[in-house]
Amino acid sequence: MNAPWNPNKRSGGLALREPFAAFVCDDAAAEAIRPIVADVGWPVDKINKGGLRNAVQALSVSSSPHVLFVDLSESSDPLNDINALAEVCEPGTIVIATGLVNDVRLYRDLMASGLQDYLLKPLDPDAVRDALLAAQGALAGPKTQGAAEVDKPRLTLAVIGARGGVGASAVATSLAWTLSERQQRSTALLDLDVHFGTAALAFDLEPGRGLTDALENPSRIDGLFIERAMVRATERLAVLSAEAAIAQPLLIDGAALFHLQEEMKNAFEGVVVDLPRGLAVQHPHLVGEVQNVVVVTEQSLAATRDTIRLLGWLKSQAPNVRVTVVVNKAAAAPAPEVSRKDFEASIERKVDVVIPLDAKLAVSAARQGKCLAAVARGSKLAGPFDQLTALLAGGLDAGSGDPRKSLIDKFNLKGLLAKRG
Q1: Does a structural domain hold residue 280?
Q2: What sections of 217-339 are H helices per DSSP?
Q3: Mean pLDDT value across residues 158-185
Q4: CB of 310 within 8 A of CB of 278?
Q5: Are residues 364 and 232 part of one domain?
Q6: Exposed, middle or buried by CB within 10 Å (0-12, 13-18, 19+), for 396?
């Protein structure tokens, strides 16, 4: 557990500490991890009966191992017991926990306390193997590249379209590409439209089964799984998406999505989530866990209404998230349904970035299997994409108005409807 463990408890030296120990509540868990522990090369005689409380008791009178596997199944207050465990472990102990509770809040609290991983029971052998190998890799130390990049601040953002067809996915793919190429960040693009997503298509990639596997087997999600499941688009950009069968609806677990986001944030310097608005409403914690939300919209009456509703929802569900408003596909002729002045008056804040319509460039990008930003150099689209990336990566204040208002009376839509006659 790379956590704030008790700094006053020290062993006589790293060489005196056991490489591994486990405290499990039942024979099934012991049998599940025993062959994998042996394969990794750790002593199987260190797999003990008894859960987390027994671990606390045992480690209070002995040195903690480098890697500790604990079972929370019999714990009535897992978070409090984990904090007690921290008091008896040396700094740098890597802790992997298992338990029966599948709850996103518990998972979030456990990860915040410093756990390396949390695996659901019954234990999946592949998930256990991946977790132990990840712990073994962590003991070996970070890779040279990772060590060089650790000083870069992490950037996480979600891109949400106010309505279908506004081009939110095009903005998401271009943002991910620009972060990786212009900002030189290792970047992950997560497309959560599991049936009709276009992230992989934008880079001429086959999406693979990584995302559907993650959603169907959330206990397998960890750093190694992310590394294997993602499809590399460029040297610094990797994509995780799906083309799930339409005839087989996929039940999306909010805890699995949260776990996925957390692992990506640990593995990449930038994470861009193409988040369908319906999924965001169903799982609001997905929005609360990012630093920035980019709302992509257009200057139509319907988009104006939905932008205001979405901004109000974000204000209530994720008040600490920085929101950036992007008007996409802006054209001077014909004039839009809602002028920019009326649009900004309606949403009661300024538009942050305007991306002009360039149909010819969009067709060219699609034919080349590239995102818009990748072919925009020298065009009128280059500036807005660079401006948007700099705005997000630079930590600037995006927007000044308060988007939380009531419905029709606050929308200023009555006046717009009157103008239309």
Answers
A1: yes
A2: 223-229, 254-267, 277-282, 285-288, 301-317
A3: 93
A4: no
A5: yes
A6: exposed
φ, ψ (nearest 5 deg) of residue 73: -60, -35
Distance CA 377, CA 130 (A): 42
Share of residues in the chain with pLDDT > 70 (%): 86
Cα(138)–Cα(68) distance, integer angstroms: 13
Residue with tokens 């991890």: 33
Please tell me the predicted confidence (pLDDT) of residue 160: 97
If one counts the domains in the chain, the total is 2
Is there a single domain that holds both residue 251 and residue 385? yes
Residue 140: pLDDT band with limits 50, 70, 90: low
pTM of the model: 0.61
For residue 382, what are the CA distances in angstroms to 80, 155, 296, 337? 51, 21, 17, 25
Expressed as residue numbers, the domain containing 178 is: 155-420
CB atoms within 10 A of CB 54: 17
Beta strands in 187-261 (DSSP E): 187-191, 231-232, 237-240
Overall size of the chain counted in residues = 421
Q: How many helices (H) and strands (E) does the chain have?
A: 19, 13
HSE, CB side, 13 Å, CA atoms: give it for residue 416.
Answer: 25
Please give the residue that has the higher pLDDT: either 93 or 24: 24
Together in a domain, 282 and 387: yes
Query: What confidence tier does 36 reach under pLDDT thresholds 50, 70, 90?
Result: very high
Q: For residue 171, give the CATH number of its domain.
A: 3.40.50.300
d(CA 55, CA 68): 9
Q: Which H helix or E strand runs over 37?
A: helix 27-40
For 402, counting Cβ atoms within 10 Å of its Cβ (0-12 exposed, 13-18 middle, 19+ buried), the class is exposed
Assess whether 62 and 184 both reside in one domain: no
Amino acid at 263: E
- DSSP-derived secondary structure for 1-55: --S---TT---S-GGGS-SEEEEESSHHHHHHHHHHHHHHT--GGGEEES-HHHH
Q: Which of 189, 135, 18, 3 is nearest to 82 (CA)?
A: 3
